[in-house]
Every structure is written in C-alpha cells, then in structure tokens.
Amino acid sequence: MSDEKRLSQEEIEALLHAADGDRSLEGQGQAAETGLQDAERQTLGEIGTISFGAAAGTLAALLKQPVEITEPTVRLSSSEEAYQVDGGAKVWTSVQFKDGLHGSYALAMKLQDAKAVADLMLGGTGVDVTSDLNELHLSALSEAMNQVVGTAATAMSSIFHRPIRIHPPRVTETSDAAGAAPGAPFEGQLVCVSFRFKVGSLIDSTLSQWIPLAFARELAQLARTAGSSDDSTAAQRPRQTAGVETSAGIRGEGVPSSERVVQRPEFVEFPSQKRVNPTPANLSLLYDVPLQVTVELGRTKRSIKEILELTTGSILELDKLAGEPVDIYVNQKRVALGEVVVIDENFGVRVTDIISPAERMRNLQ
C-alpha cells in the first residue's frame, strides 16, 4: 500500500471508536427492546390498582378486618430475585387464566402474613401466630386467595372489555431461597408489581405480583388498545352542546357562551302505578327441591387436648345463655331465630324472627 493510501494512526483510532459506538448503540437498542418502558410500567400499575383494589373489599369481608391493597410499584426483576426476596419464606398463589387472557402470574405473601390471614380465616385473632402452616391453614388460605384472585379477574374484565376467567389457584409454601412454587411462572425476566398490604392493625407489609415479562407487556398493550377503543367510541358520539337550532339541526360550534341558551329539562310525568313484586310463573317447579334445615343451640371452642380428654358424662358449656334464641339455618345459611319447644315427645322450634334480606346477603358473601 502506498503512503498516499495508508491511514494515519489517528484515523485508525477514530474508526475503532466509531465501531465501538455503533456496538454500544446496538446494545442499548436491544436492552430497550427487551426491557419495560415507562408507559408499560404505568399501565401495569393501573391494572394492579383496579384489580387488587377491588379484591381488598372481598378479603375484608372474609377476614372481618379492614384491608388495604394500595400504592403499587412496578419494576423489572428476575426469577432468582423472586425466590430470594424476603429470605424466600413466602406463600405463593399461582394463577392461570382460563378464558379472555392466555398467561399466568403468581402472588407472593410473606410467610408470617400468610399465617395471620389463615388464623383469621379459621376464627382466630391473627396475633402472634407461631405455629407452622398445616393442611388446614393452607386450605383456608386457598379459599381466601381464590376469592381474592377471582375478584381481581372480574375487575380485569372491565379493563379489557372481555369476560376473564381463571383456573382454581394453587397455594404453596416456600421456606427458603432454594424452594420453588409448583406451577409458578418463574423463568427468565419477570415484572414485579408490589403493593402495600394492610389488614387492620395486624399486618402492614407488602404483597407482590410476579408476571413473566412477555405476558406483562401483552397486558399493557391490551389495556392501551381497550383504552383507545373507549376514546374513539367517545369521539364518535354526538356532541351535546347548546347552540342555535337551524333547519339542518343543532349547530353548537363557535357559539359564545354568553349567547348559549340554558333551559331546564322537561320530563314527562308517568301515572303512578302500584308496584307489584312479580312471581316467576315456573317457581312451582322448585317446590319439591329438598332443603336441609338445622337448628343450632350454641357453639364452643376447645383445644385438642380438651377434646381428647372428653369422657361419658363430660359437660360442654355453650356460648348461648339459657332462654336465648337459637339460630335456624337453611342449607347452612342463617335465615331466622327461634325458641325451643316440645311437641308431644319431640323437640321443635318456634320461629320468632326472620333475618333481614340485607343481613342474609351478607351471610351469603
């Protein structure tokens, strides 16, 4: 190569720096492509706020304690961190969508928080629960989390404008960082949505939702698409503006506010009619359906040791006073109060009060 075509040392170094810069920009582009954008973080936070905010009311009814699930934070994480955070001692609820969405996520609750929730579900106080989780505790947690994620799925239906259903969730426990929750979607990058989780004065902690990155981005995209559909539908609706009536209709654009006519609406009065509660014509088809009626005299709690010590002649003191009304249940739902009577040689119960429809609805929840 002649001297005229030979590159100087400065030119060679400049070319090398330019190549390094191109590779750096390429790497940044790939990172941005596989990462999580700010708009996606915000959308996922809104989805979590709406869905699990609604679920807080369901959990409060189950635990008979005020429940708050608020202040979500969204960040990109990994499966390793999911198991290692909080020392790995957690209870996982794995959720698989059945209809409306194709994917899964997992909820992680600190082990001590899960113990308190299980104790409340079983009628305890939730204070200083030191015993390990047994099958009964896990069954109670499964019922609670089934209600929570079911309510969250219903709330998500309103976000995505489609019916969404889930498979029955799976609740498992991990006691160390090496443990894995069966069925949890923990492979590769994950999106962690952390909520502040409060239950009365018993729990002030965090509840975290772990979503595979690809599914999280799909949720964000679907939510934005549904939101755009709402905006376009609203834009196509006729504008309700005050204006000047012409032969072509209502002209409302460009009319100064001082010239707009504001009038009270006129409503047509309907003749008063006597309200009648309709009775379904085919209600008689249900008359032969058998229902189990149970009368409860009272209840009591005893430890396992006391139960094992029961012998013939032992007396159990109930929580009802003598002469106090007994509870009447139909298919395990309390519907009335009554008093015990004797009919010939058999016990009976005289109905003294019917539970109000509002209270019956609360008992059904």
Q: Which structural traits does this protein have?
A:
365 residues; alpha+beta; Chemotaxis protein chec; 7-stranded antiparallel beta sheet; 4-stranded antiparallel beta sheet; 8 helices; 13 strands; 36% helix; elongated; cilium; cell membrane; FliN_T3SS_HrcQb
If you had to describe this structure to a student in words, what would you say it looks like?
This is Flagellar motor switch protein FliN/FliY. Its main location: membrane. It is a peripheral membrane protein. Residues 136-172 form the CheC-like protein domain. The protein is α+β, with helices and mostly antiparallel strands. Among the domains are: 38-225, Chemotaxis protein chec (3-Layer(aba) Sandwich); 291-298 and 322-365, SpoA-like (Surface presentation of antigens (SPOA), Roll), CATH 2.30.330. The chain has helices spanning 9-34, 38-63, 79-84, 111-121, 135-160, 213-236, 304-308, 357-364, and strands at 67-78, 90-99, 104-110, 165-166, 170-174, 189-199, 203-212, 244-246, 249-251, 293-296, 326-330, 333-343, 346-354. The strands form 3 sheets. Strands 1, 2, 3, 4, 5, 6 and 7 form a 7-stranded antiparallel beta sheet that branches. A 4-stranded antiparallel beta sheet has the order 10-11-12-13. A hairpin with a 2-residue loop joins strand 11 and strand 12. Helix 2 packs across helix 5 (135-160) and helix 2 crosses helix 6. The longest helix is centred in the first third of the chain and has 26 residues, at 9-34. Residues 19-33 and 237-255 have low confidence and may be disordered.
